[in-house]
Amino acid sequence: MSASGYCGRFAPSPTGPLHHGSLVAALASWLDARAHDGRWLVRIENLDPPREEAGAASAQLGALSALGLTPDEPPIFQSERTGLYEQALARLQASGQLYPCTCSRSALEQAARRLGLAPAVYPGTCRGRTASAVPAGLRVRVPAHIVNFVDRACGPFSQQLAAQVGDFVVRRADGLWAYQLAVVVDDACQQVTDVVRGADLLDNTPRQIYLQRLLHLPTPRYLHVPIALAAGGEKLSKQTGAPPLELSDPLRELERAWQHLGFAATGASSVPDLLSHAVQAWRARWRLT
To answer: What's the pTM value of the predicted model, to 2 decimals?
Structure first.
């Protein structure tokens, strides 16, 4: 634990090389940790083998090193933490919070249309199930109350889980762990106090806070930063053709990410100079009081 008690993290999925959007999130989380004299960790979120690209995790760690963003502890890999997720799942099952769901994606879309719900809202089709003879996902029941939190960048945010999300999956029918459960367990186990990540995950946060409460885990502070967009207006990603970072010119890549975060160009002549300047500017804007 750092003297300040602050701990942040960057958690990429190894589906390809880091790109500009990845760097925006990595730089923001690194800067927030350094501005608070805290620890900065890297966690490889490799829970979905079919989407994982061979060698991507090593390449991502190498890219972070080339950019001067070095974690304070050896990276951890979610694929090695199954036992922790199983313990959390058992606690949820013991408290009667879970039920099996055999719904396919197409069946859910049809049910949502019949009920006049948004496609992303689970309509509760399997809520009465207690067991399943076929492979089934596990969903956590959500109450009809509002989850509120205050994001450090976006301000107050509220979500009515039952109406806007519905009961959500914590383990998939194929046995793979859902992101929502794994991220909650890992943030608690790593004593993460502050989550700094892209604004595309803002509406995931109430689900994570709800799981934290069910599992009696602490809730970190959250800061969601602007995401980088592709030419068509969608999130920049491997799927939208995001090119990998040009690591032969790390200074340029860092400067681009820094300006995307809403700051003026540093004019630095080296990576250490840019990062030093950026820490001071970030501290002036985002320092916790």
So the answer is: 0.94
